[in-house]
Write a structure and sequence with these properties.
The complex is a heterodimer. Chain A has one helix spanning 73-77; strands spanning 10-13, 16-17, 22-35, 51-65, 84-90, 103-109, 125-139. Chain A is mainly beta. Chain A has a domain at 16-28 and 59-139. Chain A starts with 9 loop residues before the first strand and ends with a strand. The model of chain A has no long low-confidence stretch (mean pLDDT 94). Chain B has a domain at 2-43. Chain B has helices at residues 22-27, 32-37, 66-80, and strands at 2-5, 19-21, 41-43. The longest helix of chain B is centred in the last third of the chain and has 15 residues, at 66-80. Chain A binds chain B through residues 12, 14-18, 20, 70-72, 75-76, 79-80, 85-86, 88, 105, 107, and chain B through 6-13, 25, 28-31, 34-35, 37-40.
């Protein structure tokens, strides 16, 4: 299996492909860890902690290049603030969906937005972390 | 209902000028209202809004004593109270 260099990730928010204004993407999943350690109850004494997984907690972090032009980033994201929007991420835009190019889809809560961020001479960017509402669906079906 | 992509971005995988349906949008979790409001799509068959210049109408001049009529009407309403 080849290592991949991210050059052509597809990011769509609310069905709009914003890939050409996204500089980085992080999709993460963590599970609550629930400890289940108990006394052995007469058998072998407990020697180590035991644990099970609780609920999954997913989030996506994106770094946008801000753009106020018609139909661009600001006009797409700003109206979605405070709502959930469908987000789809695929490692390679031009390659078909498959085991080596899975598509991740989920509903993200558009909980934050930074319309303007940057110092003099810098590129205006917006880095956001949106919690995922519900599960992430991984599609590997071509 | 059919829509046409007006955005420079791909919408539901369609590029500017291509048609898509409400089902296409809903199937990927999109919102028709959001896409219309943010200018990514428009209703098919809808022409772009042109700025129409309304024909200038000449101000109507009431020949039958307009000021007197308004005055009388005002007085009539006042009198009712």
């Amino acid at each position: 299996m080849a290592r991949i260099v991210l050059t052509n990730v597809q990011v769509t928010v609310g069905a709009v492909d914003l890939s050409d204004h996204v500089a980085s993407v992080t999709l993460s999943t963590t599970y609550d860890v629930l400890e289940t350690t108990a006394f052995a109850g007469g058998n072998v004494p407990a020697a180590a902690k035991t644990r099970i997984a609780g609920l999954a907690d997913n989030s996506v972090t994106l770094e946008f290049h801000q753009d106020f032009a018609a139909g661009e980033v600001e006009q797409t994201i700003y109206p979605l603030l405070g709502t959930t929007a469908a987000v789809a991420i695929k490692p390679n835009t031009s390659a078909p969906i498959g085991a080596d190019n899975p598509a991740y889809t989920f509903d993200a809560l558009i909980s934050e937005w930074t319309p303007l961020n940057g110092a003099v001479g810098e590129l205006a960017t917006a880095s956001v972390t949106w919690p995922v509402s519900g599960a992430i669906t991984k599609d590997v079906t071509p | 209902m059919e829509y046409i992509v007006t955005s420079s971005k791909k919408v539901c995988g369609k590029v500017n000028g291509e048609k898509l349906t409400q089902d296409d949008i809903i199937s990927v979790g999109g919102s028709v209202e959001h896409l219309l409001a943010s200018g990514h799509i428009k209703k098919a068959g809808q022409t772009p809004k042109a700025v129409k210049e309304e024909p200038k109408e000449e101000p109507q001049v009431l020949k039958d004593e307009p000021e007197a009529f308004a005055f009388n009407n005002f007085n009539y309403e006042q009198g009712d109270k």
